[in-house]
From TrEMBL:
Residues 11-111 form the STAS domain. PANTHER family: ANTI-SIGMA FACTOR ANTAGONIST TM_1081-RELATED, ANTI-SIGMA FACTOR ANTAGONIST TM_1081-RELATED-RELATED. This is Anti-sigma factor antagonist. SUPFAM superfamilies: SpoIIaa-like (SSF52091). InterPro entries: Anti-sigma_ant, STAS_dom, STAS_dom_sf. It comes from Actinoplanes oblitus. Belongs to the anti-sigma-factor antagonist family. Signal peptide: none annotated.
């Protein structure tokens, strides 16, 4: 399975599509692929499509934090797109939802 795909949008910003489980078994490979893709994207911003992500462990969350740092180094912004409810909940529990720019929706279990 291919866990990550990188492209550049029309403005040259890095677009990252993650899928499946992003965890300790593949996070190093995901980071390597993202770094290679970032070299080909001249724009400052990074968009991460999470629609196909089924699970993030702490290593997967660390991938998102690294992307935030990469965007900051490029004087850009990180945007998380289409996070499934489970992923939003994980980011909220980790205290990173706001920092990472996850869409502002409270976890389902908060009522």
């Amino acid at each position: 399975m291919e866990w990550v795909n990188t492209t550049a949008d029309a403005e040259g910003n890095l677009v990252v599509a993650l899928r499946g489980d992003i965890d300790f078994t593949n996070s190093a490979d995901v980071i390597r692929t993202i770094r290679a893709g970032a070299a080909d994207a001249a724009g400052p911003d990074i968009e991460v499509d999470l629609a196909a992500v089924t699970f993030l462990d702490s290593s997967g969350i660390a991938v998102l934090v690294r992307l935030l740092h990469l965007a900051e180094q490029r004087a850009g912004q990180l945007r998380l797109l289409h996070p499934p409810e489970k992923v939003r909940d994980q980011l909220y529990l980790a205290g990173l939802a706001e920092l990472l720019g996850a869409p502002d929706a409270p976890p389902s279990w908060l009522g």
